[in-house]
Each structure stands twice: as structure tokens, then as C-alpha cells.
Design a protein that fits this description.
The protein is mainly beta and 80 residues long. The protein has one helix and five strands.
């Protein structure tokens, strides 16, 4: 997983709970089209669907990639 450091008080990117579409869970960044942010850890877990490759996670973002895309960085998965 990416080692992301966020400066205290920064408005550029936030740590959030999300449901991430990930056919393989070996990546550490995801385009915004694969990430649905939710209000809590509980919502991420209950809204996930592993059979459809939708997993609960904590992410940082959105951030702008060098290619100009909005992406989220994985902090950690909330389930195995």
C-alpha cells in the first residue's frame, strides 16, 4: 500500500471510508470511477459486495494524478 502523508489542516485530500471496485486487491490507487465514498466504516462494510469485487476500504483522495485523472489512494482494506 502507498505510504501517503497528509499535512495537518490540508484541504487537498481527505481520509474517507469507501467501497472500492477492485477485481484484484493488489493495487494501491484507484480511479474515482471505481470508488464510492460513504459516511462511515459501518456503511462501507455493509455496502460492500465481495462477489461483485466491491470491497470496503479506507482511502485518501481525491487527488490529481500526473496524467490529470482524479484518483484515490488505498490506506487499508477493512476486510480480508
Amino acid at each position: 500500500m502507498a505510504n501517503i502523508k497528509i499535512e495537518a489542516g490540508s484541504d487537498l485530500a481527505n481520509e474517507q471510508y469507501a467501497i472500492v471496485y477492485a477485481p484484484g486487491r493488489n493495487r494501491d490507487r484507484f480511479p474515482e470511477t471505481c470508488v464510492e465514498t460513504v459516511s462511515s466504516e459501518e456503511h462501507a462494510i455493509t455496502g460492500s459486495n465481495p462477489e461483485s469485487n466491491q470491497f470496503p476500504a479506507k482511502v485518501v483522495g481525491p487527488c490529481r494524478s500526473s496524467e490529470g485523472f482524479r484518483i484515490y489512494y488505498l490506506v487499508n482494506w477493512l476486510s480480508d
